From TrEMBL:
The keyword Hydrolase applies. It comes from Streptomyces prasinopilosus. It comes from the Bacteria. Residues 1-25 are annotated as: Disordered. The keyword Ribosomal protein does not apply. PANTHER family: STAGE II SPORULATION PROTEIN E, STAGE II SPORULATION PROTEIN E-RELATED. This is Serine phosphatase RsbU, regulator of sigma subunit. Gene3D superfamilies: PPM-type phosphatase domain.
Length: 405
């Protein structure tokens, strides 16, 4: 009997573990109580049991430009890898295993996906790769991603690894407030980006998938720096509180409006977009409180702006808002964005504008179909198209309805 075989026929409870079961079981068995800095060494030991060497765990930086190696005994240090143009970046962007033949074996890159969010990449070199190795590595990568998510909340290690530039206090607040930048399920997926990543202040978004309903909000608080970050924090906190009491969109708006008005007074406001998507039917409802109109993307091109009745920004005491409605087709995407994405002026003094935005969306949708890759590529491409100028927060969020099961 080989190490990968199990004894059979007895039906007892004391049968010895097979090789794969033992290898996989050690991660949750030993890892759940390990401090974060020992997670990498544990992974290195377990993958080493497959004959793996030069084991690396890369985490995505906040700017979504680099994959940065996690330090730890047994892990290969190496240099950060650019997401664009590297083998590790290809595995990351395409969310699939990438195998690269080398003189001494095969370098395997595996995406680390936690709930659909792209956390980074695990890399290992093997003398040869068989289907059994691929299955084990895929499952190890899934466990590693889950453990990174679990430990992320009580250590600064991963924050420090992901930080490639100095971060403002306002941005620190915003990143701690955000949910994962991406989520993927059979019916619905979303992906978002924030710029400037290390100095964002007043922009934020939030979402929750409760049963068959996806709840989404995007906010843009007036001003800059800590004042804007504080207002955005109150707006998102009020949104979450109202959403969790299971009230309608009009009541959510009213609750957010009171929270901002009572806390900051009549001269402060937050523009906002609140949505609900029924993932069974594709019916989406939204309230627009002074925000740019979302874009509807169908067949990988923008087909219309989702204009409709709007109400005053949150904090200005607007009337009860009218709710806009639309029924999506499978594969449709909605793009929400803040005004910083279109109101920036280039070196020539011209405003970037919504028409340019739509043109770039159409181009990128034709070349990068996976929603996380589209969101990231759009954000970076638009920044370059603005001449690298980002004097205001520029945030976008893509929502894709994939159809009912």
């Amino acid at each position: 009997m080989t190490g990968g075989e199990r004894q059979g026929g007895g039906g007892g409870t004391d049968q010895p573990e097979g090789f794969g079961e033992e290898l996989l079981g050690a991660l949750p068995d030993r890892g759940h109580e390990l401090p974060a800095h020992l997670l990498g060494p544990l992974v290195a030991r377990q993958v080493g049991g497959l004959g793996g060497r030069e084991i690396s765990i890369y985490l995505q930086d906040y700017g979504q430009v680099w994959l940065v190696p996690l330090p730890g005994e047994g892990l290969a240090a190496g240099e950060p890898q650019r997401i664009d143009g590297s083998d590790a970046g290809r595995a990351f962007q395409e969310a699939r295993r990438v195998e690269v033949p080398q003189a001494d074996g095969v370098r395997v890159y595996l995406p680390l996906l936690g709930g659909g969010d792209q956390m980074g990449v695990m890399a290992v070199t093997l003398s040869g790769v068989h289907d059994a190795d691929r299955r084990l590595l895929r499952r190890i990568a899934a466990l590693v991603a889950d453990m990174l998510v679990a430990k992320h909340g009580y250590t600064d290690l991963f924050f420090r690894v992901r930080r490639r530039e100095p971060m403002s206090v306002a941005a620190e607040i915003q990143w701690s407030l955000l949910p994962p930048l991406a989520m993927s399920t059979p019916r619905v997926a979303l992906a978002g980006t924030l710029e400037p990543a290390y100095d964002v202040a007043g922009d934020s978004f939030d979402y929750a998938l409760n049963g068959d309903v996806l709840h989404v909000a995007m906010v843009d608080a007036m001003g800059h720096g800590l004042d804007a970050a504080t207002m955005a924090t109150v707006a998102i906190g009020a949104y979450r509180h109202a959403r969790r009491t299971d009230v309608g969109l009009s009541e959510i708006y009213a609750f957010m409006d009171r929270a901002i008005a009572e806390q900051f007074g009549p001269d402060h406001f937050v523009t906002a977009q609140m949505m609900r998507l029924d993932t069974m039917t594709g019916r989406v409802q939204w309230v627009n409180a002074g925000h740019p109109a979302p874009l509807l993307i169908r067949g990988h091109r923008v087909v219309r702006r989702l204009r409709g009745p709007t109400t005053l920004p949150v904090g200005f005491g607007g009337h009860e808002p009218r709710i806009n409605e639309l029924t999506l087709e499978p594969g449709d995407r909605i793009m929400c964005f803040t005004d910083g994405l279109i109101e920036e002026h280039g070196a020539d003094g011209e405003e970037f504008g919504e028409e340019q935005l739509i043109g770039w969306v159409d181009r990128i949708e034709r070349t990068a179909h996976e929603i996380r890759a589209v969101a990231r590529s759009l954000s970076h491409t638009l920044e370059r198209a603005r001449g690298g100028i980002t004097t205001d927060d520029a945030t976008l969020l893509l929502i894709e309805w994939r159809g009912a099961d």
